[in-house]
Amino acid sequence: MKRLSTILILIFTMSIGLAYSQNDDMPVAKPVTEGVFIFLGKTIPKGMKYQVERKSRNDRSYENLGTATAPGSRDEMLKRVAEYQKYFKTIDPPKADELDKLWNYIDKYLTTDSMFVSNLPVMHLAAGTAFLDRTAEKNNDYQYRVTLLSAASKQVYQRESNRISALRPVQWPKIEFAEKEFVNGKISITWKTANPADMAHFNVYRSVFGRDDFKKLDGPNIDKGVYMKEDQYYMLCIDPLGNNPAMYEYEIVPVDAYGNEGTRQANMSGSNIEDYYVPPVTSLKAVSDAANHQIILSWSFEGKEYLNGIDIMRSNNFDDGYVRIATIPVSETSYTDIVPETGENYYYYLQILSESRVISPSAKVFVAYTGADMAVDAPSDIDAVPLAGGVNIHWKSGGYQGKGFMVFRRSNPGEEFRQVSHLINGNTNLFSYTDTSRILRGGEVYQYVVRAISNDDKNSASSDTVSVSPGIKVHLTPPVHLTADVDDKSVSLLWDYMNRWDNNLVGYKIWRKNETNQWQLLDNDSFQPAKNFFDDTLTSPGVYTYGVASWDSFGNESEKSVITVTIEGVQPVAPPAAIKAFQSGDAAFLSWGQIIGNISGFKIYRSVAGGNPEAIRTIPKDADSYTDNNVERGKLYFYQISVLDENQNEGPLSENVPVRIK
Known about the structure:
The protein is mostly beta strands. The protein contains 4 helices and 44 strands. Helices cover 7% and strands 43% of the residues. The strands form 12 sheets. Strands 18, 19, 21, 22 and 23 form a 5-stranded antiparallel beta sheet that branches. Strands 4-3-6-7 form a 4-stranded antiparallel beta sheet, with no helix packed on it. A hairpin with a 2-residue loop joins strand 12 (223-229) and strand 13. The N and C termini lie far apart (71 Å).
């Protein structure tokens, strides 16, 4: 079982591309529970070291955080594993055989190409190919710079990570309970999902039934595994409960490769007790109080210890149409029902739920509710309109003078209306109510009715029913797994079908921009939610960025998923390296290394704090310095340099170099 678990966690991990970028040596920064995890590169730094620096979005320069090196011995590696495992408690710790294989690999090889332990963050931190920034503040948009230094402290390479905000949101799977089995003091529970998405591991939480005190199941006696069958992923957990009778609830939590947990879901109950006999319900009664729309149910039965609850069912017909109006604990022996209509017959029965949720129905009882007198007239001219954040319902009283009105809502024509407003009164003929409940969801259709309340607390019949969709913006999921294929000057985009994310999906919108232009909406046949591709033909070389967004039938639009491609042509000349800037008299003096190649000159850019760089001078190709005399004392200036090729094509700007004129 444990071998099966390891193998299939590897399958999950491979399915999300090892959670790293397409270039194995590009640093990747990912927020985790205890800070930010930075993958530094695939080179195991033996006799070398990674230097890690950080800056936030508003910082101009990087600050040094620390270094990472390869472990010098097996004991040092084990010490690192013990240190870092406490920060990744949501992922099971590496087992002894995994640690043996990890040290043998680190000791023998120079890169992480085939290195694997099921706990990926701890594996890389132990090998010196990752860094954990525990000083990072939550919700701060950091970027990291990683420099690989040789034994002589010379730079091998220097690269920047992604900004944290550039990462797409984690996609969690929808998991369902599949089956359970109790054998020899152990309970075996299986869940399933059609698509694991970004799940690399899973955890199981357990609570004594009804206490809502869930704790993670872990330890050497807990077996977990994953397998596939008929295009479904199955997750199995075996809990050795022992022989003490008890009943428990279980929930499963998906975990990504970095140890971030999703939400608990797929609740189920299980125990090491047999399904006990469900006792019969006796003395079931239903009594109308002829006021306040109340019907009081009462009953009794014995042997409640291992029962799971009581469902109360109601209908206006004896034979069919029953709906569950409440589920209550088995300790209750009465329930008061508030019925919606006067002058109706109501039929009730109870469903007793056993420990394994086997349903045992009671006999049915009948009661008629007539009220103390006739109901008042229903409100008229009801209408509903969407508002930002909710719905406004308005109606006329028709001259009725009573206590007031109440508004009722339902989300499905098969459901009963439920009261959503307080008592609404006033002296005008036109009334209104604004529903801004957090239950409302954009893109859903809701139905409303209004009832008048008499001075003796009687409900009128319902008004006409109105339907409306609230004016709440829906946050659609951006298209996931966006890829691009470049062939000469043709670009083909491909992404996942998003129909399963949103039933109201209309299609996709495609944008494009180059290095200098703003986003441009491209013509495409977007009224096809199943068309998850787009082909574009470009006429000029350069770097292009594409954005793809989902949009639905209500006009809601997701954020863009973006990807950048390069159309080969004339390669821009890189900016000069080793730029230096310092004060020379009352001027700023710049110098740089010589550029070898077919160039025609340099452009000098200058900016001040918070400003954009402006070109101040173009100078000849044989220059290697520049003096800026147009400066003021006490000011801080930033300089950047670009190179013009022989066709006057300008390359990218260099890094900012600051100088303060004193």
